[in-house]
Design brief:
- The complex is a heterodimer of chains A (422) and B (402).
- Chain A is α+β, with helices and mostly antiparallel strands.
- Chain A has helices at residues 8-11, 87-91, 141-149, 155-162, 182-187, 200-209, 212-221, 224-233, 236-244, 248-257, 260-269, 272-281, 284-294, 301-304, 318-327, 365-368, 382-392, 412-421; strands spanning 5-7, 15-17, 23-32, 41-47, 52-56, 60-64, 67-70, 76-77, 85-86, 95-98, 103-106, 109-118, 128-138, 169-171, 175-177, 311-313, 337-341, 347-352, 376-377, 396-400, 406-411.
- Chain A folds into three domains: 2-173, Roll (SH3 type barrels); 191-295, MgtE N-terminal domain-like (MgtE N-terminal fold), CATH 1.25.60.10; 311-421, CBS-domain (Roll), CATH 3.10.580.
- In chain A, 36% of the residues lie in helices and 24% in strands.
- In chain A, strands 2, 3, 4, 5, 6, 7, 8 and 9 form an eight-stranded mixed β-sheet that branches.
- In chain A, a hairpin with a 2-residue loop joins β6 and β7.
- With 402 residues, chain B is mainly alpha-helical.
- Chain B has a single domain (2-401), classed as Amino acid/polyamine transporter I (Up-down Bundle), CATH 1.20.1740.10.
- Chain B contains 18 helices and no strands.
- The chains are: A alpha+beta (422), B mainly alpha (402).
- The A-B interface holds A 92-95, 103, 105-108, 139-140, 144, 147-148, 210-213, 215, 235, 237-238, 241, 244, 271 and B 61-64, 68, 71-72, 75-77, 80, 206, 208-210, 297-300.
Chain lengths: 422, 402
């Protein structure tokens, strides 16, 4: 098994031999064409004199530490091809995301597997030929050693030398390349689908480690919903700079998916002109909600609250509440109370959600409401709000305007964020 | 508190620059040559600003550290070489600063066998168990303590007319010692590790290209303050020691003692300043080294990671402190030789780093519209060529005296 492995550091500089075993030149780089195959090396680049030549994968007879033997000598000159992912130029020394380990790593070396494949006609006379598949990307001390002594010692010595060091590699399927240029991303068939499976909080940690351009690129190509969740977990200052670096339409899509209070927080961090551009691109409903929230000072109840809540008339029953919940399924995950209002829209009571389940369908909600009605006004300072949460052990606190009409709700996670930022 | 909002990485970096080694160099310049060397401070400030500005701009635009960029553009072997040299240079710098802690506290009659172990453990804990935000506040406070030098400079009552004249009047002499001193002044002010630290700190703070203007002001301000402090150290030693007969001094503590005739306070302030500078640099150097090396070579790094997640980072950080502190406690350790040796490596490393920086700052793919302007390039290449000449000369001199 070990014999069929080949490292990129070993591949580089291997002599390339023609059909009669004469040397053509040395190997300079190898490239994938991800649109054709995600892991098989499609092109070998060989440098002779001034120009580089391209060897197609099916022109190779065998690959070993002694050299690359060709079975077809019709080689084309190398032109920089935008559909190629060149291992030496585009992968080595760059940062990639280890989806499985959920971290950013830097590529030191690449491990290939030499596989035998049947020639499928194409002038190959049905002979077996070797091709290279990317198996793993190497990080860690072992691959650093290989890079340092590469070319200075014979490959077989290096293999012996590295044996005591434990390998540290990431399987190719778990590698996610980060490419800032959207055109090239398309040509190289790079998607960030794998990233969408990572927990948003972990994804946020990952992007915080990347450079600015890469960060923007990832958020641009992620599904807006995933992007919004991950963005909410990123440091607020960085959120703004990420959104600012994007096209306003895409930024607007992401902001729409965020909860209105978080959206308002990010937008208030930005320059007026940029946030205005984004707001203009948004759908009418979320836009007006966010705009309302933007009116409030950041450190008041109005600035902290969000507008995702469910209200019912004070005369409603448990049955009505259930119907209302069914109509608002997207809010269920973070909901823990319902609010009762009178016919003027003034706050009349708070019903803890759990009480609905032990009451019969016809019970009036008023009977289930908490005894004391606790609320904050939009202008209350955030310290007072925090105190209310602490004093009454709240999970959610309704916020009302001057006319006592409900304006929004503050939840415990908002309080945690406030406290964390202190 | 307002100044905490405005000041940050640039200001800290520039101040750490005046570490134990720097203070000795300035003291020696003042004690031996009086006011003669003051004219170098203006060109040094300009060069420092040019170099530091480039770094913080790269950090703000790319969001990547200098060692990251070097790795991505110049490959692993180059990075490894640069990082090895950096570790060597910084290790000797750490030693020099622990020696500074030891000798400044000995002026207050505290044994080094007591002060150095405690200081090293405290420094280790501050960084590993604290967080960057609180550490940065402590660092900014440490920057304020450099005022000690300004006060002690004034207390000595130096000849201000002479100081003013020589600040603007370039004086060159074909004297080996004089030239050596000039080179030392430049070399101690612009050090390779600062560029790595500054860029990393700008990235860590999340400064973006848009907010960069503010950051630039901070960098310029920091560089000026650094050299103002240097000015007062030179002037203090010129007024106190040189005016009573020019002589060489062996250490910064000797300079402090030279201030004794001008009152207990001048002496105490000077020593306290040395202690502050040494502790400050001993905090930042090992941390910055560990970060740069791990970033460049692709190891996990960061004090927010656990020991298991980032073993190489923690080992490197710990070893730098342990070795740096331990050698100070070994009687008869050839510390002066080590420092001379580190100046040689410094002379090799600095030009490499500066050239990489200019190449990176001119790379359109990396810097987009923020690449160096033509004028900026001209100015920075001149700086680099002069720095290379001086550094190599200093390295040459250091080799001869090894």
């Amino acid at each position: 098994m070990a014999e069929s492995l080949l490292f990129f550091t070993e591949l580089l500089g291997l002599p390339v031999l023609d059909v009669k075993g004469r040397r053509i030149g040395r190997l300079r780089d190898a490239a994938l064409v991800p649109l054709v195959h995600p892991a098989r090396i499609d092109r070998f680049l060989v440098g002779g004199g001034w120009a580089w030549l391209t060897i197609r994968y099916d022109q190779v007879a065998s690959i070993s530490l002694d050299g690359i033997r060709l079975k077809d000598e019709v080689l084309t000159p190398y032109h920089s091809d935008e559909y190629m992912l060149r291992i030496g130029r585009d992968l080595l020394d760059q940062q990639i995301i280890d989806v499985n380990g959920r971290k950013v790593v830097r590529v030191n070396d690449v491990t290939f597997e030499v596989r035998s494949a049947n020639g499928n006609g194409n002038g190959a006379n049905g002979h077996d030929h070797n091709c290279l598949w990317i198996l793993e990307v190497d990080v860690g001390v072992r691959s650093i050693l290989r890079r340092l002594v590469q070319g200075a010692l014979p490959p077989r010595w290096i293999r012996r030398l590295q044996r005591p060091i434990p390998p540290n590699s990431i399987r190719w399927e778990f590698c996610n390349i980060v490419e800032p240029d959207p055109q090239r991303r398309l040509r190289l068939n790079i998607s960030h689908e794998k990233l969408e499976k990572i927990h948003p909080a972990d994804l946020a940690d990952i992007v915080e480690e990347l450079g600015q351009a890469e960060r923007g690129a990832i958020f641009e190509s992620l599904d807006s919903e995933v992007a919004a969740e991950a963005l909410s977990e990123v440091d607020p200052k960085m959120q703004a700079s990420i959104l600012e670096s994007m096209e306003p339409e895409k930024a607007a899509e992401i902001v729409e998916e965020m909860s209105p209070d978080e959206a308002a927080d990010v937008l208030s961090e930005m320059e007026e002109s940029t946030s205005e551009e984004i707001l203009e691109e948004m759908e009418v409903a979320p836009e007006s909600e966010v705009r309302e929230l933007l009116e409030f000072e950041e450190d008041t109840a109005g600035g902290m609250m969000n507008t995702e809540y469910i209200t019912l008339h004070e005369g409603a029953t448990v049955e009505d509440a259930m119907t209302a919940l069914r109509g608002n399924e997207d809010q269920l995950e973070n909901l823990n109370s319902l609010f009762l209002v009178d016919s003027e829209g003034r706050l009349a009571g708070t019903v803890p959600l759990a009480r609905l389940f032990v009451a019969s369908g016809a019970t009036p909600l008023r009977q289930l409401a908490s005894d004391t009605l606790i609320s904050a006004t939009v202008t209350d300072h955030q310290d007072d709000v925090t105190e209310l949460f602490d004093k009454y052990n709240l999970l959610a606190l309704p916020v009302v305007d001057e006319e006592k009409r409900i304006a929004g709700v503050i939840t415990a996670d908002d309080i945690i964020s406030v406290l964390r930022q202190k | 508190m307002l100044f905490l909002a405005v000041l940050g990485p640039g200001f800290i970096t520039a101040n750490v620059d005046n570490d134990a080694g720097g203070i000795y160099t300035y003291s020696q310049a003042g004690a031996r040559w009086g006011y003669l060397s003051l004219w170098t401070l203006i060109p040094i400030t300009v060069a420092l600003i040019l170099v530091q500005e480039m770094c913080s701009r790269m950090g703000a635009v790319t969001g990547k550290g200098l060692s990251d960029l070097i790795r991505e553009e110049f490959g692993l072997r180059v990075t490894f070489t640069v990082m090895s040299l950096l570790v060597l240079v910084n290790l000797t710098n750490v030693m020099a600063n622990f020696a500074g802690i030891a000798s400044s506290l000995e002026l207050f009659h505290i044994s080094r066998y007591f002060s150095v172990p405690i200081a090293s453990v405290a420094i280790w804990f501050l960084i590993v168990k604290g967080n960057y935000k609180s550490a940065e506040k402590i660092f900014l406070f440490a920057c304020v303590l450099y005022v000690a030098y300004i006060i002690s400079g004034i207390m000595v009552k130096p000849d201000w007319t002479q100081a003013a004249i020589y600040s603007f009047k370039p004086t060159l002499m074909l004297d080996r010692d004089y030239i050596e001193m000039l080179i030392g002044l430049v070399g101690t002010t612009i050090a390779p590790w600062m560029q790595f630290y500054l860029q990393a700190a700008v990235v860590e703070k999340g400064i973006t290209a848009k907010e960069y203007v503010q950051s630039r002001v901070e960098v310029i301000f920091g560089c000026i303050i650094t050299d103002v402090v240097a000015f007062f150290i030179i002037v203090a030693c010129a007024g106190a020691i040189w005016s009573n007969g020019p002589r060489d001094i062996e250490s910064a503590t000797e300079a402090a003692k030279g201030l004794l005739p001008f009152g207990q306070y001048a002496y105490l302030l000077f020593s306290a300043g040395l202690l502050n500078a040494s502790v400050f640099a001993a905090c930042i150097l090992p941390l910055s080294t560990a970060y740069s090396v791990c970033e460049g070579l692709g190891f996990e790094s960061g004090v927010d990671k656990s020991f298991d997640e980032a073993p190489i980072f923690y080992w490197l950080y710990t070893l730098l402190i342990v070795i740096g502190a331990a050698v100070v406690l070994i009687p008869g350790f050839p510390l002066v030789k080590m420092i001379l040796f580190s100046q040689v490596i410094n002379g090799v490393l600095l030009p490499i780093v500066l050239i990489f920086m200019i190449l990176l700052a001119n790379n359109v793919r990396i810097m987009q519209e923020w690449v160096n302007s033509r004028f900026y390039n001209l100015a920075s290449w001149i700086t680099v060529v002069v720095m290379i000449g001086l550094s190599l000369a200093l390295a040459g001199i250091s080799i001869r005296s090894l």
